[in-house]
Model the fold of this input.
Amino acid sequence: MKADLSCEIAGIRTINPFWLASAPPTDKKYNVERAFQAGWGGVVWKTLGVDPPVVNVTSRYGVHRSNTRQLLGINNIELISDRPLEVNLREIEAVRREWPDRVIIGSIMAPIDEQAWRELAIKVANAGVHGIELNLGCPHGMCERGMGSAVGQVPDLVKQATSWVRQTTALPVFTKLTPNVMDILIPAEAAKAGGAQAVSLINTVNSIISVDLDAMAPTPIVDGRGTHGGYCGEAVKPIALHMVAEIMRAPETRGLETSAIGGITTWRDAAEFIALGASGIQVCTAAMLYGFRIVEDMIDGLGAFMDQKRYRSISDFKGRALPNVASWNDLNMNFDLKAFIHEEKCIGCGRCHIACEDTSHQAIRIEPKTGGGRRFVVVDEECVGCNLCQMVCPVSDCIDMRPVANDLPPMIWPQHPKNPLRS
Amino acid sequence: MSSTNLPRAGDLVPAAQLQERFADLHRPLSAAQSVVEAARCLYCYGAPCVNACPTGIDIPKFIHQIRSGNRDGSARTILSANIMGGTCARACPTEVLCEAVCVVNETEGAPVKIGLLQRHAVDHLLATREDHPFTRLPDSGFRIAVVGAGPAGLSFAHRAACLGHRVTVFYAAEKPGGLNEYGLAAYKMVDEFAQREVEFILGVGNIALESGRRLGANLDLAALRASYDAVFLGVGLGKALPLDIPGTGLPGVRDALAFINDIRRAPDKGAVSVGRHVVVIGGGNTAIDAAIQAKYLGATTVTIAYRRGKEQMSATTWEQEFASRSGVVFQYWSAPTAFVGTDAVRAVRLVVTRLEDGQLVVSKESHTLAADMVLVAIGQTLDEHVLSGLQLSRGKVEVDASYQTTLPGVYAGGDCIRSGEDLTVQAVEDGKQAALCVDAALRRHNRGRS
Done:
């Protein structure tokens, strides 16, 4: 591997962009050291609060599966660290000493009380962390006590908490954002106004993960009842990609760095976030489901990808996809795609036909094949190039979406003759 | 049993090994395995597997129902098209039917295990059901007689009962089920499955069984026509084709189906007699079932002698390979000319054959196989003299498009007519379709007796 995976976020150097997010995997020294042994570049220690520590319930996690039992996402109703602050701080100090090349970020959470935030920030800073992350995102339990997402959903409070910490310590400040808002730019702008160098996002999405139809209760069930919890894992990645892109491309948040979180499971997921401008990556669910070893291929695969594309460092492709993230109004209306079916690869399952016939544009006809069987024929006049047939086709490369060479110049909706508001 | 002095399997094979050999041929899928297997199905639209199934089971739908956790619904999907879905899941040559055309063959090199998934769904319903999954229409007042309690007869009876008719099934054997009970290898139908399935089928109600009633002996077609609104014949091919060569009557020469039947009926397989050197004559799945079971029972050598080649065998490739793996030897292009022996069979004399312009030609070259047991599996034929009054053609009962024979009100289906292959699944389809035709005809003529 020629690629150099070391990089920098908010002025902090890290041997690779892969950090573990503030969550159960980073709850204590034992786990964090196992993570470092496995190769993780850094951890955001599980959120520390003001003593006395919280008390958790059982059970804590729920699962969302596909009907083929694949795990799509999980949610949790666990609170912040339930161990005494001092124990955590001493462990952070010890790990810092033993793993000098790895990053530890201290995650903190407090009620809206200036003194509480400042004291907590000072204590954590003194333990030797490289930066401080403000947990303004936890959507369950803590929010009922006026913390977590209860703060993150009020822009003034986001700004307030961020600036208290920023004024207290010279360390880089990461404000962790909740996705449970109407527009992610508003809390991001507030974090920037409060002085944050970076935002970490997304925290978990508020959810009821499933309903147990025997117990007639949401899961996870705590003695017959359940509550909403934070949804995470592969299924939330698209939500996170969008929010990271919005922050990275908006002029209002220019200068903020992002530490991307949200369903990152493979090197490819990580590369996508970096291509949208993320400076670093945080992972939780994938590690919880597969163990810390999952980072081995994240490192190897990202390096291989970069080698193949001749990117020497992360910064060579960071944000490369951002210029191509556009508003709908800036898309070329004259661009035209048609589905093309490679008949020799078609296995005859009929999925493209029924998807198009029932729910789209009746653009794939079934014709009997000479000598038996059937062929699927695209009706170009009806095909709107929507991709649905290609998506449902079980054979890779059987259906291409081919641009039509119509020689028309690009035209956007504001210029379109059918736009009633065209100037 | 055989009158010769053949050894008992129990003297040749330790009991534990016998038990293992006669256990379920295809281990059933666990619930977890079934979900994994179901996930391989692509949920085709206009699926080729459905077209390949003689009963037209909506296979993508029933597999999707397994995936969604709706196993009872899955079983109902299967059984609504094929009430013997349980037997067909065990005995169907899926490798030449649904699984042969599964599109996953092309993407993964092996089909979705449709048969095992079908078995999983049906077995689950049979094991857990409280009520019969189907209900009868209001009583039509019509009464229908069925002759034969095999797949065609029972399938007909079930569908006719569902349509509101009262059905009486007359059959000659001791137990109902036909070839499901008497003609399939024991390891394909373990744990009395055929009888459990019959009991399930009868659960719909309004089906009476009368055993020990044989057409031409103590059952008369004309009398049935007189006392019932319609008659359905699912009599199968009752007579084993005899091999008319010298020595046919020697002790030790047996009909393969009778041998298979002996094994099925024996609670202790160790009590079944078997030769040390067995020659099976024939090329179909019955020959295979007999040969493998002879080997399992402890025969030292088992040879299938077939007068044509491997490609011409009607036994599927899978069945042939299964026999080879079990130690059965194939002797192709060999036609028996005599069974040799004095007090019992000692050898089979065969001539070498070949194909010339599509015609089987016998050469002068001959060879001899030592044998103390010969199992004849060259097919069955219609017992013609019991079907007097019906038009037959080329050894089968002639029927029209609505399964009606040349006698008005008398219908037929299954192996005794020429529909598709002589398979359980085809017989089930015949019975189902014939019942629909009879129902339509009776209601059209409005001859109800209510």
Q: What stands out?
A: The first strand of chain A starts at residue 7 and ends at 9. The two ends of chain A are 54 Å apart (CA to CA).
